[in-house]
Amino acid sequence: MAVLTDEQSSALTALYTSHYRQLVRTAAFLTGDRDAAEEVVQDAYVKVHGTWRGLRDPEKAEAYLRMAVVNLSRSRLRRRQVAAKHRPEPMRDVASAESYALEHSRRDAVVRALQQLPRRQREAVTLRYYGDLTEAQTAQAMGCSVGAVKSHTSRGMAALRPLLEGER
Amino acid sequence: MTPEDRLREILHSHAETVQPAGDGLQRIQERIQQRRPSRWLVPAGGALVTAALASVLVLLVGGPGPREVVQDPASPVPTLSPSPSLSASPSPSPSALPGTTSPSPSPSPSVSPSPSASPRQGILSVEYTGPAIWPFRSTQEADAWRGSGTKPWADDPIETARHFVSDYLKLSGVTASIPSSFPAPADQRATVQLTADGRSVGRVQLAAYRPEGPWTVVTVGGTDLTITSPATNARITSPQRVTGRVTGVDESIRLDLITFSGLVIGTSFAPAGSEVPWEGELTWTAKGWTSGAIVGTTRSPRDGTTVTRIVAVPVLPG
Description:
By secondary structure, chain A is mostly helical. Chain A has 7 helices and no strands. Chain A has helices at 6-31, 34-52, 58-84, 101-116, 119-129, 135-142, 146-167. Chain B contains 5 helices and 15 strands.
């Protein structure tokens, strides 16, 4: 069994601490499956570590991780859709107090609508508005052009806008 | 509050409800530690070991299994094929390489196990033995590079692609960036996106001679500009007819024959139209070159200089 060097181990820990939680949440939006999200992100860390030695370069490693998460989420969705022939379920909220039920219901509607978007629109909207990535960073992560990101984001927002405006 | 701001607020609020388990780091570390030896290194000798390695390679080739598929299906890359000596079944057919539509009769791109030339004694490692353009063409060259102090960037596929563009193709205004599809590390292959003026102009397909590198460029493709003939690693003689396809209207394709050392020994232009195969002819007088690439490029009609597409296939002198 191979052993991680001290340098690798500390780089991995730093990368984990700084990005893991947000990547899991991003993957949860992309896959609509919280359990799968964590597996996807762990896969991404393993791949990044193995391929690029990118742990030595935090900036590269972060970009690689994002891309791996997007690609692995796609693979996960494809596999699930083929196998189960069902659409991704929206994330289930943890139990919330009744007083917040209505607000949660409205927010859930937006999240559900997000997850009903075509895959690329969902990815673009999630990376732009949850990941707070620039258009260029989003394009890198999705493996497409900035123009395509603009287009996917615009279409996604057009679909969500009625819900968001009605929600105010 | 704009709809965009409202969406941000909702997504961040909703994400707070997703709490990863606390053992993520431990699980990642365990998987990294378990992964390496089982995928790459096995003790030499013994039929069972050989069979196990063959099985691993069959999985790498793409057989059914739980392996995640993250390779862009539009970007087939060099096939990993088990050595005939390790598998009774025939090697899979080579995938069509990007930028080409006809597989070469010459040796297919492959990664095969070899007990020789391994940096570690007494173990088998997996090595790439397929076609290559630059900066290496063989395991011998790759092994000679290690410890030579030259090309320190060659263990990074993105840096290798960048140097390929600047040092070999000598193209300006073209940027190599994060791969368009994240490669599976065990595949020893990678795709790096080339962009110019913010638009994709091609994808560089790379292969690593060994799991730890170095990387070499195999082909460039990924756009609608393709070279259908000559095939990958074909032996060519002057004058050489070059054919391909492109979907643009009234394109002029620049064709260059570039030797391994980066010398352009033949240049011509081929007119092309939408959906009509294009055809050009390369002539050269240089002798003594040992390998090279036919490189096709198109330029923006706006300024005539900005590269809009790149395709490259490795060739050998006839």
